[in-house]
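Task 17 of the worksheet. Students: predict the tertiary structure of the chain below and write it out as structure tokens. Keep your answer in the requested format; marks are given for formatting as well as content.
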Amino acid sequence: MPGVRQLLAFGRLSPLLAASGLVALFVLLPLLALAGIAAQGSGDMWPHLIATVLPDALLQTGMLLVGVGVLTLVMAVPCAFLVATCTFPGRRVLEWALLLPLAVPGYIVAFSYLDVLHPLGPVQEALRALLGIANPRDLRLPDVRSTGGCILVLSAVLYPYVYLSARASFVLQSAAALEVARTLGASRTRAFLRIALPLARPAIVAGLTLVLLETLGDIGASEFLGVRTLTVSIYSTWVNRSNLPGAAQIALVMLSLVLVLILVERAARRAKRFVATGSARPQAPTALTGLAGLAAAAWCAVPVTLGFLVPFTHLAVSAVRRVSETGLPERIFGEAFTTSVIALCATALAIGLGLVVTEAQRLTRAPAASAFARLASLGYAVPGTVLAVGLLSPLAGFDNALDAAMRQAFGVSTGLILSGSGAALVAALAIRFLAIPVGGIEAGFTKLSPHLDMAARSLGCSGPATVKRIHLPLLRPALATAALLVFVDAMKELPATLLLRPLGLETLATHVYGEAARGTYEDGALAALLILLVGLGPVILLARMSASALRASCNSPRSVSSSPKG
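Model answer:
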């Protein structure tokens, strides 16, 4: 009987579904613990936070989010439209170069600009020499340690999220819609504002949401540049004031902002849907020559210069100068090794958990498996500081329970196995970036026909055998790409590392943070340069993959949305 066979098959696979549920619970655990920690605060703590901490933190966070959102759109959307629909000098280089700032963490760009724009730094010294001014006090540029400076730095690093999604949308738009607008008398600018931009709005909003989530979770750039955001307040309340419940309460406020951003993004995309009106013809690129071509190239070159060329050049020069003067610092090798080990462990854990979740979706076909996969991907939307605060309590509780049991049974103290070691940090990083392997493996499964699984079953393969002999070999490219992205993100993650690292453990990211806090920028240049160079690999891979995908989409029959539906 088919129904009985299906039930038996589901029974055999139920352990996989249960494992997927445990992965989702593992991701939700810090958020549940966060509420418990916040509830431990004394009755007068919340009024104190409302009166003294939250107003300023909320104001500065709001100003930062609005400023970064607006400047990111100004940087990214015109560049995406120019690259997608026009030809001009340097376009082929700028098409992928506009993604390079993704390789540079925000705190490293802030670290670089603090030195570059210092009153005694290279920019102001060159200006004084050019203008014949001897006294540094006679020429002072606006201080980069400000909300405006932080907005500029984060926008220069994060705009590629909007650029990527907007460029793809502009490339895939039908030429017919714009041509009709032009025949009705609309100028090129008006056609862009009234047709192309509204059609690209869902993609732009999706990229902008990622930008705002990254801005909300930033701690390095904000603290370096003197902006007291919610993230900085969580860190200072926990570390400087030793007030974990207060930090948890601020983290809950921050988490509510994250949920608001996600809900707004989904509402914005639901409010503007588009239906296909037939097969689409790609737009023929418009040739920009003369001053128009130079202006387009200059506009696209500005974000690359601010977000990549300036920090990379400064770090390279500073690192070479420091190494030539004092040689390679001995501790840099140990920190690089420690960073690599932590990143590798986090990558292995994230890939393993991602496989459990996605295989449960593939093999069980149960609605619950899809729900577990969505819950497992929530970690990417949660800032590292919030995860760190939420993870500390359950891990410490496990350590204390294990220690008490071992003392009672064997008279041996186990100490803090998880919360006192790098295990807590590895767990936080795996939760934070679990969405990457889940999304990557799901995308890989879309290219594998379900008939492969049916054929394997008909030949007597069990579920584990199907995974080992069919899925894993065919998913190798998706797994490798996801592993590379998780590894690099874990290498440069700062907030969770600052809060969860064991005493005495230094990574490249915390090295850069410490040198910036002390004002010894050249001493941290080599560590910052290493992080940047490691991040270049996945960015180049991402650039090649996105370009190939867009070319394939343009060369294949497709349907593109062109008429709005409310």
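Marker's comment: Residues 1-13, 275-279, 558-566 have pLDDT under 50 and may be disordered. The CA atoms of residues 265 and 322 lie 46 Å apart.
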